[in-house]
Amino acid sequence: MGESMSKGREDMNGYSATHLDRGPQELEERITANILGIVSTPEGKSQLSRMKQSQVDFFATAISRIAEGKDRDKTPQEFVALMAALIDKEYFETGASEIAGTKDRLRSGFVAVTPHFGIAKATKITAEELGQACKTSGVKPDYLEKLGMPPNNEPFLLRAAAIYKTIFGSLGGPEKVNPHELIMWYPYPFDELQRDCGIAGIFLDREGQYTEMETRLDDLFNQDRANNKIPVALMYPEAGTTGKRSEDGNPYGLGPFKTGFLVYAMHCGIPVVPIVQIVRSDSTFVTRVLPPFEVSKNTPGGALQELAEKTRQDMQKAIDSLLNYRVGFKEY
Description:
Layout: H1 2-10, H2 17-20, H3 25-38, H4 42-68, H5 75-85, E1 92-95, H6 97-100, H7 103-106, E2 110-113, H8 127-136, H9 141-144, H10 158-171, E3 177-184, H11 190-196, E4 200-202, H12 209-226, E5 230-235, H13 260-268, E6 272-279, E7 285-289, H14 301-324, E8 326-327, E9 330-331
Parallel strand pairs: 1-7, 2-5, 2-6, 3-4, 3-5
Antiparallel strand pairs: 6-7, 8-9
């Protein structure tokens, strides 16, 4: 595994074709416009501005530690603290009784599966903004030249913040549970930052990537269990932003699900917990946890495909229900 990781580090600025295939630029812009259209109130825009700045500050501090090669042990704690606090309490609602009511089933860990909702597009960080923040944090100019940026300038924090917050609130906080997001490896120094934060990265076009991902998650799960924490693998079964494969870029229209989340749950003998989220115009994040389910050992590929599709349909129904739900005269 170490050799493969080192190879990835050497060409970290060169993404695989799958990672860079974001669909037509017009569709990408339409998805972004649709997401920005959701968050349209002054309160919403103010919240997004605060979230963006919080992410910039975190990146700048963490990157300065990587550049200097010291104090990196502080980053994991600051990461989970940010994920727990990035969304203000008054802008967060959750329905997580399915987790709270099944804690005993989840103590050995679970797979949290969620749509790849592209809300991170609403807090894009430009190279200039990040560079200036890093400079203010004391990063030297020659090092700044090495900085890469995630594709489309989208930070990887906001996308998962509501899911982390839901899991933390249901199972006792970062002291009791440790989520590990599975996403693509980002360019240096973000790859190092991802490792510091307990994120499991993957290159989709490389041979043996599922095995490497499984090994990485297994290592993280074993570390958490040794520390008496509940490990969680957070996976996005669409393998791309929600709406990416639709005609209109609807950020709530789920695309086809891959089966990797089911395969890993089967491999570990742990439950799957589907979680959906929507965002209101005032940037209130609303999450709902669906009933956990098990994946039987030795389930054949065809049955896994059917279970993946059933999971997609159940999650789509939950999203549609949230979108159509009314509180007073205010619609989600």
